[in-house]
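Q: How would the structure tokens look for this protein?
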Amino acid sequence: MSNFMRMFIGASALALMAATSAQQAPIVYPAKGQSPQQQSKDEGECYTWAKQTTGIDPVALAATPVQAQPQSSGSTVVRGAAGGALLGTAVGAISGNTGKGAAIGAVVGTAAGAGRARSNQAAAQQQAQAGREQQLNTYYRAQGACLEGRGYTVH
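A: Here is the predicted structure in token form.
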């Protein structure tokens, strides 16, 4: 198995793990016998407080798709093609056919550059997902602190 395939499979597995390990809202128990109506009221007020305190709205965050910062994959592919062509020219010169060597090198370099671009994009996507999970964790900690202050057990 080529290094490219190993990197692609590894990046795909990491992206899948990141997607399946998304933050979940805490479980709230009315430890002091609060009624369902009181709990609903307290959760609403704590939602507002945590949102204002952290600047994070979990509803808006959930509605926004996770997108990595755009990467210039074209330049990675072009650099791969250029590097491959250069290496192919050198190899072709040794065998007596620089043109053919350059062409083969460019094709191989393009494929390698495209693989690096995909790998970079997968890593950026994973990083964006981790940032989203960190934001949710911050919000849920604030919401949990508010609810605990009102007599609930939060897990």
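The chain has one domain: 28-63+71-154.

Helices lie at 3-20, 36-54, 58-63, 73-95, 98-149.

Upvote if useful.
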